[in-house]
Design goal:
heterodimer, A: 251 residues, mainly alpha, 8 helices, B: 258 residues
Chain lengths: 251, 258
């Protein structure tokens, strides 16, 4: 009895064709899966990638620490005035958050992983949201270092409303920096492009943060600044949901 | 549109813009009030920049609104013509924005020079000026992004996304600066107008004519830039076609010399 050839069973995860134009090519995208389990897997994947490379946290902490040191050299230690207090709190936080958020996108562009990200079976908003969750944890570390530097080196008091403003400001800066980092990673001269893109978009937050910090340090109510920062964060989050699929779209 | 039609449009809009700007200069020279007689005016000569500075700013706002409309249309339909409109309007708007900033700086330095700090710092931390500076920086970054992204479709997509994000930052800057700080800037149409912002009949009419002249200038710059972009696209298409022919080995050979 001769054995009749039978078709091999379909593999559950068929091999995908590699991109035809090198690092920035396009993989065929499987249908997007939705649901919390898919998203949690993406968060885990992102956390694992950061735990292996530690590039984002190193970039953020290194730049934040260097900026605190720079402020120490220029301003000297001791009690800071209201303006200096706002400066030593927000400049390290803003620049370190930008470096941290953009590093992940720059790394993906360097190793050609943007095409892989685009091919993940999830929407662009879900992929970017997972990255933002991990980066939010890292930004909290940078925020702790910046606040500790301001408190213990420059003697800046940290009343609760200032801490709330720092948290809102850091979240807004993370959203702006992550969006701009994804754009700059797809451009030439991205080191120059990144601050050029971030600073205009972050300016409402920075104006709010500076004014609110001086009010809080002077013992006044910073309610207006808190409301403005929360409003801008909400608007940015809504815009991010719309824009992430466009930024991570395959060509 | 055919190249001849673009040329006709550029000539027509150019004639309207040149005539209206010349008429504006003449009217300001002849009919503007003598500010040196007004109380509370510190810089009567540079005060005449009033007829150029707000119209240039309004025309730049119109240009940026065109960028946003073009970007939304591009993201919806992925038609390169919408992207071309957005890109060209951004360039024209940025030029007009620079005119508004420059004229405003000359006036502000003289008018606000007694506020206790450096005149330039006073001008550029003034809430309304800050919004215009943010706009200028935002659309400057937009133009740079367009230039530094290698692929045309990617540049169009990223540019449209950044334009939308940038337009979000503008009202936010405006609200932020208005809520958190007090403004020295005259507010011609707003509810929180300064006393020196009241506009009399003749000044209002001149200002309206200035707005028309600068809008005509914006339309002319836009038509010129669109015409150039149209030509650029044709050259790029011809280059692509020549490369394709070369790759296929069907490029026409030059005639052999006898």
């Amino acid at each position: 009895m001769s054995a009749t050839p039978t078709a091999a069973p379909a593999h559950p995860h068929p091999a995908r064709e590699p991109p035809d134009d090198g690092a920035d090519g396009v993989y065929p995208r499987p249908p997007a899966r939705r649901g919390p389990s898919t998203w949690l897997r993406l968060v885990r994947l992102e956390a694992l990638r950061e735990a292996r490379g530690r590039e984002s946290i190193q970039a953020g902490l290194l730049l934040g620490g260097l900026l605190i040191l720079l402020h120490m050299l220029v301003l000297g230690s001791g009690a800071a005035s209201l303006r200096e207090g706002a400066l030593v709190l927000w400049v390290p936080l803003a620049l370190a958050t930008t470096a941290l958020a953009a590093r992940a996108w720059a790394r993906d562009a360097d190793v050609g992983a943007l095409a892989l990200l685009r091919s993940l079976p999830a929407s662009g908003a879900a992929v970017a949201g997972a990255r933002l969750v991990v980066q939010a944890v890292l930004v909290a570390c940078v925020l702790a270092v910046s606040a500790a530097g301001a408190r213990y080196v420059f003697g800046v008091p940290l009343p609760p409303q200032l801490l709330a403003l720092l948290a809102l400001g850091a979240f807004g800066l993370l959203l702006v920096a992550s969006l701009c980092g994804a754009m700059a990673a797809q451009a030439r001269a991205r080191e120059a492009m990144l601050p050029t893109l971030v600073i205009p978009l972050a300016s409402p937050l920075l104006v709010t943060a500076g004014n609110g910090t001086m009010e809080a340090l002077a013992g006044e109510s910073a309610r207006d600044a808190l409301l403005l920062a929360a409003g801008y964060d909400l608007a940015l989050a809504a815009a991010s949901l719309l824009l992430w699929p466009i930024l991570l779209e395959a060509e | 549109m055919e190249p001849a039609a673009w040329t006709r449009a550029a000539r027509a809009t150019g004639a309207v813009a040149a005539a209206s700007l010349a008429a504006l200069c003449l009217l300001v020279w002849q009919a503007a009030p003598d500010w040196s007689l007004s109380t509370g005016v510190r810089a009567p000569v540079t005060r005449n920049l009033l007829f150029f500075h707000p119209p240039a700013a309004w025309a730049s706002f119109a240009a940026y609104a065109t960028v946003v409309v073009g970007s939304i249309a591009y993201l919806n339909e992925r038609d390169p013509r919408h992207d071309r409109l957005a890109r060209c309007a951004a360039e024209a708007g940025w030029v007009l924005n620079t005119v508004a900033l420059t004229t405003g700086t000359f006036w502000g330095i003289q008018e606000w020079s007694d506020s206790g700090q450096s005149a330039l710092a006073t001008v550029y931390t003034e809430p309304k000026v800050l919004v215009v500076v943010v706009l200028w920086a935002t659309f400057g970054a937009y133009l740079l992004l367009r230039r530094l992204v290698p692929s045309a479709t990617r540049a169009a997509r990223l540019g449209a996304a950044f334009a939308l994000l940038g337009f979000l930052a503008v009202p936010a800057s405006f609200v932020t600066s208005r809520v958190l700080t007090t403004s020295l800037h005259p507010d011609i149409g707003g509810p929180g107008a300064n006393p020196d912002a009241a506009v009399e009949g003749s000044v209002g009419a001149l200002l309206a004519f200035g707005a028309f002249a600068f809008l005509a200038l914006f339309v002319h710059l836009l038509v010129l830039r669109l015409r150039l972009a149209h030509l650029e696209d044709k050259v790029a298409a011809a280059e692509d076609a020549a490369e394709t022919r070369e790759d296929a080995g069907t490029a026409p050979r030059p005639e052999a010399k006898a």
